[in-house]
Amino acid sequence: MKKLLSSFLFLTLIQVCFGQSELVSIQRYLQEHASVWNLKAADFANLELVSSASSKASDAKHVKVRQTKNGISIVDGFGIVTLRDKEVIHVTTNFVSVSEPTNHPTLSAAGAVNASLKHLDLTAADLRQIQNKNNSFLFSKEGISKEDIPVKLVLGQHNGQLMYLWDLSIYPLNSEHWWSMRLNAETGEVIFQNDWISHCSAEHCSGENHRAAQAMMVPPPPPGTDQYKVYALPNISPAHGDRVMVVNPSDATFSPFGWHDTDGIAGDEYTITRGNNVYASDDIDNDDVPGYSPDGGVALNFDFAYDSLVGVQGNLDAVITNLFYMNNMMHDIWAHYGFDEESGNFQEMNYSGSAFGQDQVMADAQDGSGTNNANFGTPPDGMNPRMQMYLWTESNVPDLLTINSPAIISGSYSCSTAGFGPPVPNIPITEDMVLVIDDGTDTTDACGLITNGAALAGKIALVRRGSCTFSEKVIACQNFGALAVIVMNNTGTSTQAMGGGTGAETIPAIMVSKPNGDAFVNQLNQGIAVNGTIVNPGDLTATDSDFDNMIIAHEYGHGISNRLIGGGDDTDCLWNAEQMGEGWSDWFGLMITQVASDQGTDGRGVGTYVTNEPNNGGGIRPAPYSTDFAINDYTYGNTNSNALSQPHGIGFVWATILWDLNWALIDEYGFDPNVKTGTGGNNKAMNLVIEGLKLTACGPGFVDGRDGILAADQILYGGANKCLIWKVFAKRGVGFSADQGDSDDRNDQVEAFDLPVECTLGLSENKAAVHVQVYPNPSNGKMTVKNTVSGIERVELVDLSGKTVYAKTIENSSKEVVLDISNLNKGLYLMKIQTSNGLETIRMEKF
């Protein structure tokens, strides 16, 4: 109830802050430029202001507007409009053509919930409505969901037609998924389903959000003396360094009342690992109710010893303290780059009074729902996200598998285990292996329709790692009666722990390396029976992801990307096949664990600690992250291959490009170890990526992500790094002519390694516009050229052939010039701006 009230107050606040004049200005601009997006002016006849997000450019603001029809919001018809001095300078569009709805909303809200439950194979004991206001309903979670079930009547596109839909979310009691769904409001057909949990509620203690603005009127307390013994950043894990004591690490700007505050008034509300940004506790019993949290006492002294004799499960104080520390650090660091209150970050109280609040991270240590995994569930702003961190079993465990025959390959083999289904049993499973055959592209990965299913009954199934999930492989084999599954890695010479799972797995699964798997297949292809024994030789528990700062950062990163793309009110933008969420998350972890001695050509693995690899190991991705093509030669074209998994493999290629971008900027501007407010190339990369997320289209592909970063550079740095950015992306195949095709089709990407014309005209890169701003860009008429530091003396436009097609000399130079380019042909141009400080260049477009 409080959260829905907060939503109403937030919408009112947005309308007050921007007012009708700004909405009219945005509407006029969109109607004048409607043809750019193959739309009509009438499609923008009725707009609503939804939310705003801050920009690192102090004079800019990102405003989300949504189309409406008949007073109903069009859920997928929206855009992010960037304003500078109340002028539109950029539009990230997901706008749609508005027509008459093709159906009628005859299905009730309760009927929509019941249809959703049936679709999910869930049943409701008693569906109880607890709120009904303006076509928005709330149903009790009791016996159905971990959270109350919000239901709202909206309009949306389906098969090119506008129709009435019921939009709702259900968080099933097993916590495996958090479903966002849309149903035909007439038939109950499910037409959209997205899982808010990205794999690898608690009470609310603060008041309603409208109190927050008053809280900041109370001065924050002086610096605290709270202290935490943790693996302090940039340390990654126990394998990379020792725990140290950090004192008063909270950020004075973004956690001004410390990490244990929840009301914005000096004085800590909690002495346990709970505060405004995160509530960290154990969830060993897997009930999603906060369990044990270490207590630092009045002095907030979280100095806990670690007893190596009892392992991670016997050291909850140390483990949870590290989890609490890392969540708070992620909050504080990325707020400096734009993941702040206005942009939908995670806080119980928003001190500024903007956005929703009431959504600290619920961080579960040693979650009992699985192993070899971690996940993060991101609902919209105003609802608590949940981070679940798991124990990891050993990788490359000797004696899990013994080949009994034939003699040529007999002996013990090192394997890794699955983080789902039953554990490897103590009672041996001894049987012949059967290589799975299916009708898919890779005929042995169990991702297609299995054609030799009858042969699997009572046997050990042998499958190749491939395009579908580990869980899907195991379930496919168990459905034909297999006793266990051996997954053969499809790359490298090692194994990895297998994560994921749905709760439907009933047989154990292990992984062998590619060379060992190839040896097994070679024998089977010769018609020779291969007999093996699978057995647990002892306790397989090895490590805890609560001690792996890279994995914690990765999971938190899902919350950042989900909240920033499309705005904090909508976390349904990273649902499509080519989406890069896993890549952004890897990159977040890489960025905050850099040190001055690192080199771009180094190999950086992810998850080496939890998988018991050496620090220079390859980790859990297809290759280490490196600018060196001898170590990582992946390009955009590789995302078409089913050899790369979806979404992790696709995300890996995206993170590879972003890591290259980081190092290109470091080469240009140097490295700054000040991860929050430094000015080095790494800091510029962090600015560009966070700002770029706010400018990236919903349902993005790589080209959308690239264009978001280019737009961010234009807004933040006047396009100073444009050609550097283009060269980085072109090197990995996302060049000027790259085509992402349908971003929901992972097999239609076309890579290209070319550059735009302005980056190939022989102009030195230091001539790219630094102080000049041009808006609107693109334009079909008048456009403003503004220089922030000196006068403009002359402006020329050069077409793609190098011909000057427009020139204007400004007598008595001015800092601001208005050009009329209505007579120019449509296309791209290079604008040369001669200022009193020298020549600057920028790309502009006439449409």
TrEMBL record:
Segments forming domain PA: 438-519
Gene Ontology biological process terms in this record: proteolysis
Annotated localization: Secreted
Pfam families with a match to the protein in the record: PA, Peptidase_M36, Por_Secre_tail
InterPro entries documented for this protein: Fungal_virulence_M36 (IPR050371), PA_dom_sf (IPR046450), PA_domain (IPR003137), Peptidase_M36 (IPR001842), Peptidase_M4/M1_CTD_sf (IPR027268), Secre_tail (IPR026444)
Keyword Secreted: yes
Cofactor(s) this protein cannot do without: Zn(2+)
GO CC, alphabetical: extracellular space
Cited SUPFAM superfamilies: Metalloproteases ('zincins'), catalytic domain (SSF55486), PA domain (SSF52025)
Molecular function GO labels: metalloendopeptidase activity; zinc ion binding
Keywords: Hydrolase, Metal-binding, Metalloprotease, Protease, Secreted, Signal, Zinc, Zymogen
Secretion system C-terminal sorting domain residues: 774-838
Tree of life domain: Bacteria
Family, as annotated: Belongs to the peptidase M36 family.
NCBIfam families in the cross-refs: Por_Secre_tail, T9SSA_dep_M36
Descriptive protein name: T9SS type A sorting domain-containing protein
Organism: Fluviicola chungangensis
